[in-house]
Design brief:
Largest sheet: 9 strands, mixed
Number of domains: 2
CATH superfamily of the largest domain: Alpha/Beta hydrolase fold, catalytic domain
CATH architecture of the largest domain: 3-Layer(aba) Sandwich
CATH class of the largest domain: Alpha Beta
Radius of gyration: 32 Å
CATH topology of the largest domain: Rossmann fold
Helix content: 25-40%
Oligomer: single chain
Length: about 725
């Protein structure tokens, strides 16, 4: 319990609400209520309920113990608040002269204590209830949805052995929320906050929002949340409902007893808001009528009602429902499982140069500028870590990553990663990073917030990024015509597009090795195939929003996803979500490496790139981006975009395919293979479940693929 002392002043207690602590009263800085009261001469006390940040200890149990969290607001009233009143009365010698200000659950516990233990009424001279919460059956918003499955969640959590706390890992939650809400998602964070309380945009500045999320939420027990859910369902103000059998043991009746509000003799002043979703006027007035003494009732006028908010932001019901679902989902995840895995990996936070250095290899970073102004970074491992002559350079080999990736994706197998194997085999390894990804985010003219920065698809990646890289590497190594190329996924798409559209670049490359080749895509499986049905709509939605970025602020997105997937019971769900994109292969996915994968993926890309693949699914053709009839005529001279002429690819090509690759289907690969004029080999990996991601992260990728690949590279180089 904190205190702003004034030994001559009248003591006043400020009691916080649910998922809060004493810091919630200090969000207005110098204009915060405790400071105003202190300047007015009062002796200010700020208690903290059990389980919160400042009251997290127990003489017997640890926070990890089930018993530590076995309480609801019945116990907060009977033990925490009663003891607080005793201590303040004793230390100030002003029992009977204490003033009490409660906010939200800080009013619930006060009413419960005074109604159940009326002897404590004598401690308090007057009570001031801010947003009083007693009867809650008229509560609005997503919090009310919890009422429909509180008992189910409570029993499910017990059956699964999860934590009995809501927001147990409080520091992690706050760090996550502050990171997310300080980004472009700040407006969404504000809306989510309103979904829990009621809408009032004018009174919540973005500056205050960051302060709020820096101090909220605080931990509480699942039983507290369930207790409110029970009150919503019953419409009563009663004790926790344990079920008929346990109720008989605890209370002597099948149903829990109700709190007798008529026993509250402390004079009460109530302060209400018309737009308060949790403290609705109907239930507040019911409380007033049941209470014996009312000294004041103050009804504030809302500056912005929910109905006005819907009109201002043009919210439709589906969007509100989506945000409500997210709100409840976050609480649900916290209820069921708050225990994080014990396995951590420093590689999660390392950038590509640091990853290379960690495993003992030399590294370089080279910067190039494309003809359309993008500033790209190419990483390089110039020679093996065992090379005695540091000036020695082997045959250059370029590794090109796929969609929503960057050069770090090739290091997900750590010491057995492909770049290291190639370096050990004597090659001069180059790792590209296409435009807008983590390591190639600059532009000579446009900022990332400019929609023009994102006006490109893989047509431009091929024509500008890859073309410039091949020129640079050829000139830097003086080995034009001797460069080897390994592409994964979209890294093969851009290669095929460049060589088919600008055949003069075929002379730069000696051999090309395509991992999970993607050219024709009309047979792909999984959710990405759905893009084809509304790909153009996706583009126009993003264009209307004034952004062309598919994953805005990917670093924040990775923080959010990585944290959400860090729970022991949520990580398999995240793993399966990855499989929905790539194809299912649980035996070859090391679940302990999930943080590593999510620590480096995804990387940003443009909406047009994703839409371009969607167009390919729908058309069944390997062709340029489709801008629509009029713009196609202006750009291409035809109403439909031209197809890439695969017959102009003269670089010898080797293909490596997975039988369970949902994004690079064997039918599509075979169709492309038939059109390729210069073939080396087509290797179908001898494992039935090998998927799109296995090329870079499978447990046994070295024996299943890399050994064969290294042998073929040596043979065909």
């Amino acid at each position: 319990m904190f205190r702003i002392p004034n030994k001559k002043g009248q003591p006043i207690i400020l009691q916080h609400g649910l998922v809060a602590d004493s810091s919630c009263f200090l969000l207005k800085k110098e204009d915060s209520l405790p400071f105003l009261l202190s300047r007015a001469g009062y002796d200010v006390w700020l208690p903290n309920f059990r389980g919160t940040m400042y009251s997290n200890s127990h003489i017997k149990y640890k926070r990890e113990n089930e018993e530590y969290w076995n309480w609801s607001w019945d116990e907060l009233a009977a033990y925490d608040l009663s003891r607080t009143l005793e201590i303040v009365g004793k230390m100030t010698n002003q029992t009977g002269n204490i003033l009490y200000i409660g906010y939200s659950m800080g009013t619930t516990t006060f009413f419960a204590l005074m109604a159940s233990k009326p002897e404590y009424n004598r401690y308090v001279k007057a009570m001031f209830a801010l947003a009083p919460v007693v009867y809650v059956n008229h509560m609005k918003g997503p919090t009310k949805l919890i009422a429909f499955f509180t008992r189910f969640l409570f029993n499910l959590r017990k059956a699964m052995g999860g934590s009995a706390a809501v927001f147990a890992n409080i520091h992690n939650y706050r760090k996550l929320i502050v990171n997310v809400c300080s980004s472009y998602l700040s407006s969404v964070c504000r809306i989510i906050l309103f979904l829990g309380s009621g809408f009032d945009v004018p009174q919540l500045t973005m500056k205050t929002l960051y302060n709020v999320y820096g101090h909220l939420p605080s931990s509480t027990s699942i039983k507290v949340t369930v207790h409110y859910g029970q009150q919503i369902n019953s419409g009563d103000f009663g004790y926790f409902d344990y079920g008929e059998e346990e109720n008989k043991i605890r209370y002597g009746s099948k149903r829990p007893p109700l709190y007798n509000i008529s026993k509250i003799t402390v004079p009460i002043a109530i302060y209400c808001g018309k737009s308060d979703w949790r403290s609705q006027l109907q239930i507040t007035f019911k409380t007033i009528q049941s209470s014996s003494i009312l000294i004041n009732k103050y009804l504030s006028k809302p500056l912005c009602s929910y109905s006005n908010m819907k009109q201002t932001f043009k919210f439709n019901s589906s969007f509100v429902l989506l945000l409500q679902t997210l709100y409840v989902l976050l609480l649900t995840i916290s209820m069921i499982d708050s225990k994080s895995p014990t396995i951590t990996d420093v590689d999660v936070k390392l950038k590509t140069p640091a990853l290379i250095a960690k495993y003992g290899y030399p590294s370089e970073a080279h910067t190039i500028i494309t003809d359309d102004g993008f500033i790209l970074t190419i990483h390089r491992i110039p020679h093996s870590k065992g090379e005695t002559d540091p000036t020695h350079r082997g045959q250059p080999i370029l590794l090109q990553h796929g969609l929503i990736s960057d050069s770090s994706c090739f290091f997900l197998n750590q010491e057995n990663s492909l770049p290291f194997l190639l370096s050990d085999a004597g090659y001069d390894v180059w790792l590209s990073n296409i435009r807008a990804t983590t390591y190639s985010s600059g532009h000579t003219k446009y900022d990332r917030s400019d929609v023009k920065y994102w006006d490109w698809s893989w047509d431009e990646i091929a024509a500008f990024d890859l073309a410039r890289m091949l020129k640079f590497i050829g000139q830097k190594t003086n080995q034009i015509g001797n460069i080897l190329y390994i592409g994964h996924s979209m890294g093969t798409t851009t290669f095929f597009a460049l060589m088919a559209s600008k055949p003069q670049y075929n002379k730069y490359v000696k051999s090309m090795f395509a991992l999970a080749p993607v050219a024709y895509v009309n047979n792909i499986k999984g959710p990405l195939s759905i893009i084809s049905t509304f790909s153009n709509n996706v583009y126009w939605v993003y264009k209307a929003l004034g952004t062309g970025q598919f994953i805005p602020n990917a670093s924040i997105f990775r923080v959010f996803v990585n944290y959400g997937c860090s729970f022991r019971r949520s990580s398999p769900i995240c793993q399966n979500l990855i499989f929905l994109l790539t194809g299912f292969d649980k035996p070859q996915f090391d679940q302990n490496k999930l943080p590593l994968v999510l620590g480096h993926l995804p990387s940003p890309t443009s909406v047009r790139t994703v839409v371009h693949f969607g167009q390919g699914v729908r058309s069944g053709k390997f062709r340029y981006y489709d801008f629509g009839g009029k713009e196609n005529e202006a750009r291409y001279g035809t109403k439909t975009p031209p197809q890439y002429n695969i017959s102009q690819i003269t670089v010898p090509i080797a293909l490596y395919c997975g039988q369970n690759d949902w994004l690079s289907q064997l039918k599509d690969v075979e169709r492309f293979w038939e059109e390729v004029p210069t073939k080396l080999t087509k290797y179908v990996i001898p494992y039935d479940n090998f998927n799109h991601g296995d090329f870079i992260w499978a447990k046994d990728v070295k024996t299943l693929l890399y050994n064969q690949l290294l042998s073929d590279i040596k043979k065909f180089s």
